[in-house]
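Good day; I would like, with your permission, to put a structural problem before you. What I wish to show you is a protein chain and, alongside it, a tokenised description of its three-dimensional fold. Please examine both parts with care and let me know of anything in them that strikes you as inconsistent. Thank you for your consideration; the sequence and its tokens are set out here:

***
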Amino acid sequence: MIKFLLDYSVGVPIYRQIIDQIRFGIASGQLKLGEQLPTVRALAVELKVNLNTVSKAYKELEIKNILETQQGSGTFISKTEQVVLETEREDKLKEICLQFSSVAFNYGFSLDEIVRELKNIGSFKK
């Protein structure tokens, strides 16, 4: 199961953040095909958001056949393998880098300092 993290400062709607985190949780292997997700109510309580927000995210993912809801059993990651397109993956990385670099540059960090720190972080992951 993934830990959902919401960021109210980025201007991205909360339901969209939930959708993105589920999709990338699947792409990264943190969420497995057939895995059960929290109920709409449970996730709304956990994230402290309106039920309709979580419901909207789940419904949009159901329309795209990424999630399937079984009445009385819950909501599951679809067993039909969904692949995040390479272009979508690259677009997401650009978006993350843009947000990150904007904050870092506002704090006065140079590009060399940012690259050095990213390389340090990368060496801990291996």
User: Anything to note?
Assistant: Residues 86-106 form the longest helix (21 residues).
